[in-house]
């Protein structure tokens, strides 16, 4: 009886390790690295929503995207209806866990990361005009790789 109980406990213990080994792969921390397609933008002036612009691709099989690479560079790719790609913008970026700073052509923009999951990214780019008007752009993105 003691041997039977010990054998059962050993099998249950071993099965729990074998059964969970692949599950750990799905619990990766979200990363900014990868290709992100635009879903929509919301444009606000002084806190009032002016416009929501939903992205409509010329060809859904090859969406436009921004790619953040592991070496700290990024590129914005525009695809036409025939899936011919053009690099629209490129530069460097720094993601510190709360903001993304992108630098291209001597200009730096800083966006706050509102949400980052393995599949979704939501950013907030806010700037104030010299007259005090606050412009806010909220971007919604989906990871495509």
Structure, explained:
This protein is mainly beta and 145 residues long. The protein has 1 helix and 9 strands. It has one helix at 2-20; strands spanning 34-45, 48-54, 65-68, 73-79, 85-95, 99-104, 107-116, 120-128, 134-143. It has an 8-stranded antiparallel beta barrel with strand order 1-3-4-5-6-7-8-9. The longest helix is centred in the N-terminal third of the chain and has 19 residues, at 2-20. It is globular, with a radius of gyration of 22 Å.
Quick structural overview:
This protein is mainly β. It has one helix at residues 2-20; strands at residues 34-45, 48-54, 65-68, 73-79, 85-95, 99-104, 107-116, 120-128, 134-143.
Question: Count the strands?
Answer: 9
User: Spans with pLDDT under 50 lasting ≥5 residues?
Assistant: 1-25
How far apart lie the N and C ends? 53 Å
How much strand content do the residues show? over 45%
Rg result:
22 Å
Keywords:
single chain, 13% helix, 145 residues, 9 strands
List the helices and strands and how they pair.
Blueprint: H1 2-20, E1 34-45, E2 48-54, E3 65-68, E4 73-79, E5 85-95, E6 99-104, E7 107-116, E8 120-128, E9 134-143
């Amino acid at each position: 009886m003691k041997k039977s109980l010990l054998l059962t406990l050993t099998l249950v213990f071993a099965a729990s390790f074998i059964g969970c080994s692949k599950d750990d792969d799905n619990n990766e921390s979200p990363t900014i690295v990868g290709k992100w397609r635009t879903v929509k933008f919301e444009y606000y002036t002084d806190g009032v929503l002016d416009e929501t612009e939903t992205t409509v691709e010329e060809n859904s099989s090859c969406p436009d995207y921004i790619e953040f690479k592991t070496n700290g560079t990024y590129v914005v790719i525009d695809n036409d209806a025939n899936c011919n790609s053009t690099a629209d913008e490129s530069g460097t970026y720094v993601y510190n866990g709360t903001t993304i700073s992108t630098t291209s052509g001597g200009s730096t923009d800083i966006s706050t990361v509102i949400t980052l999951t393995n599949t979704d990214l939501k950013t907030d780019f806010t700037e104030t005009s010299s007259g005090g008007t606050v412009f806010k752009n909220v971007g919604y993105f989906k990871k495509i790789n």
